[in-house]
Structures are given as C-alpha cells and as structure tokens.
C-alpha cells in the first residue's frame, strides 16, 4: 500500500539536457528546436537529484510519478528505463501539445489525484520551472523548486 507520492519533472530536475534546450522570445521552450536536436539525447546526463528519485522508486510505499513535456519517443523511454528506472506513472506529452502548456502538468496531476487511492496521500513534487511550481503548488503537500542552470519554462 502506498503511503506517499513523489512526483518529478525530468529536464533540469533529474536530467541535464540543456545542450538541447533553447527558449523562444516569450520564454517558452522552443519545441521545434528541442525535437530537431533529439539525436543529442545520448549526451543527456543525470543530475544529483536522480539519486533521491532512485531511492523513491525502490521504496514500495512511494508512488512515483514522472511528468514531462517530452513526447513518448522510444529513445526517451529507453533512457528513463536504463538510467533512472521506470516510475509507477509516466506522464508525457503524447499529443505533442504546444498550446496551453502552462496547465499541462496541473491538468494531469489533478486528474490522477482525483482517484480515491491517491486523494489522501501526502504528495511531494520536484520541479525546476517556476511556472509549474506556481501552477501546481496547491496540489501538493510540498513543492521543491529545483534551481537548474537553465530553467525550463512553458
């Protein structure tokens, strides 16, 4: 039986993929640039917080979520499986959404937390984007704003 929820962002939180990142003038992630540089995925490296993540996935009492704007590309999923370990729930940008990204994570977390088995559990979230820290704060017991060299925003 799960006793808590640990939710993580990927890029800038668990993985340094800054070599593939570029911001648009409005501050949003340049998704076209990101996708065009997908071939550089093998240059991604794990960040120190990945050790905490791995402890959580090894703990049978912790329900682990990864919520990312990455699309469910087989290479991304393989990277997660081989270097981090698979979470209980992997939320990815399956529709390759580019609009209304500000509410992407909130929408998915809220839907999951409405399930009876999760509604009462303490919830913790690690995120590098100030946007998602702000938009998701009320859904979690505690939100940890991870400061990265390059904050990813939506």
Report on the structure:
This protein is of the alpha/beta class. It has a single domain (4-145), classed as HAD superfamily/HAD-like (Rossmann fold, 3-Layer(aba) Sandwich). The protein is built from five helices and seven strands; from the N terminus they run ββαβαβαβαβαβ. Strands 5-4-1-6-7 form a five-stranded parallel β-sheet, with helices on both faces. Strands 2-3 form a two-stranded antiparallel ribbon. Helix 3 (74-84) links the parallel strand 4 and strand 5 (89-91).
CATH topology: Rossmann fold
**Oligomeric assembly:** single chain
Number of helical segments? 5
Number of strands: 7
Tell me the Rg in angstroms.
Answer: 15 Å
Strand order of the largest sheet: 5-4-1-6-7
Taken as a percent bin, the fraction of beta residues is 15-25%
Distance separating the two termini: 34 Å
Please give the domain count: 1
- Which structural class best describes the helix and strand composition? alpha/beta
Which percent bin holds the helix content? 25-40%
Average pLDDT rating: 89
Overall outline: globular
| Helix and strand sequence | EEHEHEHEHEHE
Quickly name the level 1 CATH class. Answer: Alpha Beta
Question: What characterizes the major β-sheet?
Answer: 5 strands, parallel
Going by CATH, the homologous superfamily would be: HAD superfamily/HAD-like
Q: What CATH architecture label applies?
A: 3-Layer(aba) Sandwich
